[in-house]
Known about the structure:
The chain has 133 residues and is α/β, with parallel strands linked by helices. It has a single domain (3-110), classed as Vaccinia Virus protein VP39 (Rossmann fold). The protein has two helices and six strands; from the N terminus they run βββαβαββ. It has a six-stranded mixed sheet with strand order 2-1-3-4-6-5. Keywords: Methyltransferase, Nucleus, rRNA processing, S-adenosyl-L-methionine, Transferase.
Amino acid sequence: MYTALTWLHLTPVIGPRFHNFPSLLSPQVPLKDESVDVAVFCLSLMGTNLSDFLKEANRVLKPGGMLKVAEVASRFVDMRGFLGALAQLGFKLVSKDLTNSYFYLLNFHKIGPPKAQGPLRGLTLRPCLYKRR
Length: 133
């Protein structure tokens, strides 16, 4: 059985078991440890507690599970630092697509539990500013 977990504002994912949790609520989700195949963060890493949400994704992902991140390109302060922070949280980068000038797409596999405790350098995203058009 394929299970996907998303923290999304836009929800384009379809699967046999699909859980959608609003991103601005508590990072804890009512799912068992290692019960999810894919966790998706799509335009939803908006809080100041990014590590809490990513640690929760690690908790519920099965070993080898996939973490997918889609965020606005202009929000990234230091891509190398961001990727290093995710490595400390137990994720290995599988692929990244930085070719779009508006959105970055990152794919990770869960390789183990988080190694880091406390704040992580590099795990910072700029606020998302909306322009009036």
